[in-house]
Amino acid sequence: MYMYTRPAHNKKTADNAGAVESFYDHHPYPPPVQDLDGYRERWQDPQRRHAEYHLFWPTRPYREELSILVAGCGTAQAARHALRQPAAHVVCIDISTTSIQHTKELKQRYNLTNLEVHQMALEKVGELGQKFDKVICTGVLHHLTDPDTGLQALRDTLKPDGIMHLMVYAAYGRTGVYMLQEYCRRLNVGITDQEINDLANTLMAIPADHPLAPLLGRAADFRTKVGLADALLHPQDRAYTVAQLFDFIEQAGLSFDRWLFQAPYLAKCGKIAGTPHGGRLSGLPPAEQYAAMELLRGTMVRHSLIVSRSDAPADDHILRLEDRPRQQFVPIRRHEALCVEERVPPQAAAVLLNQSNNDADLFLAIDNKEKRWFEAIDGQRTIGEILDRDPGRNEQSAKDGCHFFEKLWWYDLVVFDASANG
Ligand SMILES: C[S@@+](CC[C@H](N)C(=O)[O-])C[C@H]1O[C@@H](n2cnc3c(N)ncnc32)[C@H](O)[C@@H]1O
Asked: Which of 226, 235, 242, 253 has the highest count of CB atoms within 10 angstroms of its CB?
């Protein structure tokens, strides 16, 4: 099985942890922001907040008083969470002095009394002596000298029915990144501004079909110096295939709930569904299907997922569509969902897509009836209520309607509030 290993930097040494800390002190990531006004404004929308909540807890009633840990918070992630959820208590940790400083500045500027900031390594998070409803750790574990110990430490801070949001690098889609990391090591490229400029200018000469080329065009990361340094000059990173990721979470006593964006991992979404292998892939057990889809799509650069404790008191927080009467679900649009009416395929009234999914085949072409159903979503009405009030309702259209809402869910266009019939 393909497994990327970095001979020079995968050694588990204290030096490496120091190198990571120093790297982020000099190249805080993401690039610091000072103005979160627009961000705060966008999160005033109650549908947006409900959609976010039910993405994580589809079967639990909505609530705002949550305890949240942001581990490896970088420059602004924790402040964003504290700002958008004033009723939540947000604790954040990071090893980098610069990241902590930026977070403290945002805390002060926005008077975030619900934000608690600690400079500490996440491996030591247990010293806080706190348990959380939600732990967020994105873009961090793959930089640790020992990611297993890090994940285990985070897992131990989860309340029994808590939820964790993780993001780690994906292996195959980052092949070009690792080639260029190796190139930079061979050339001893440093992390001064001049070195990064020279590297950026040199990269303009790589061929259009180099494995890194699509990323250079597509990923926002490569358009800034900090992003380029984070991707190509990082003193330590590793990536996970789906299979490695499932082992990683299982060993830490966690189990998989869902992907943040699931359509790319599902054989029933997009072009793959209509290929000779579509049915065969869909028939695989979920983890096998996700692993096969990662290989077939080939371009995933990160895995974002929701996990919970494998000893959680019950797994009824996970939404299994087949187990529940769907009519009683309340669909809520995800804020990334977009309805496009220009240049749609023949016979379609519109196209629905999630702006965060990069794959060009992940869209739903819908007819007028489906467009009416989509537009009737208000975050209050159940699927049954939406279908009942439709002028052309009959037994068949009610069945089609249920299937349509399921498709909206597969394609990451809605989440369901299934708390009423839990
Ligand atoms: C790529 S940034 C991601 C920041 C943020 N999570 C986000 O998604 O925007 C990685 C952050 O993890 C922090 N970090 C790295 N190793 C850490 C460790 N062992 N403990 C705590 N923070 C760490 C770095 O200082 C840096 O701020």
From this structure: 242
Q: Yes or no: say if 313 and 186 are a contact pair by the CB < 8 Å rule.
A: no
Residues 120 and 158 in one domain: yes
Tokens of 404: 């349509």
d(CA 195, CA 243) in angstroms, rounded, equals: 36
Q: Judge if 394 and 265 occupy the same domain.
A: no
How far, in Å, from the CA of 35 to the mean position of ligand 1?
Answer: 21
Query: What is the Å distance from ligand 1's center to 316 Cα?
Result: 32
The domain of 161 spans 14-171+237-309
Same structural domain, 275 and 390? no
Domain shared by 161 and 106, yes or no: yes
pLDDT for 8 equals: 37
Of the CA atoms within 13 Å of residue 120, those in its CB half-sphere come to 19
Total domains in the chain come to: 2
Ligand 1 center to 94 CA (angstroms): 6
Task: Write down the pLDDT at residue 224.
Answer: 80
The residues, ordered by sequence, that sit 6+ positions from 207 with a Cβ below 8 Å of its Cβ are 213
Domain final residue, candidates 278, 309, 340: 309
Beta carbon of 236 within 6 Å of any ligand 1 atom: no
Provide the token pair at 306. 């929701």
CA 194, 199, 205, 208 dihedral sign is negative
First to last CA, the chain: 40
Domain boundary residue, one of 267, 287, 309: 309
Give tens-digit pLDDT for 39-92.
Answer: 999 999 999 999 999 999 999 999 999 999 999 999 999 999 999 999 999 999
Tell me the best of 16, 21, 75, 95 to mutate to test the pocket of ligand 1, counting ligand atoms within 8 Å of each CB and taking the most: 95
Q: Would you say residue 237 has pLDDT above 60?
A: yes
pTM of the prediction?
A: 0.91
Q: What's the 344 CA to ligand 1 centre distance in angstroms?
A: 41
Asked, for residue 184, whether it belongs to a domain, the answer is no
Its sign, for the CA torsion 238, 240, 244, 247, is positive
Specify the pairing of strand 158-169 against strand 302-309.
antiparallel
Beta carbon of 235 within 6 Å of any ligand 1 atom:
no
Which tens digit of pLDDT belongs to each residue from 275-329?
Answer: 999 999 999 999 999 999 999 999 999 999 999 999 987 767 777 777 677 788 9
Task: Output the CA 73–ligand 1 centroid distance in Å.
Answer: 6
Ligand 1 pocket, 138 CB below 6 A?
Answer: yes
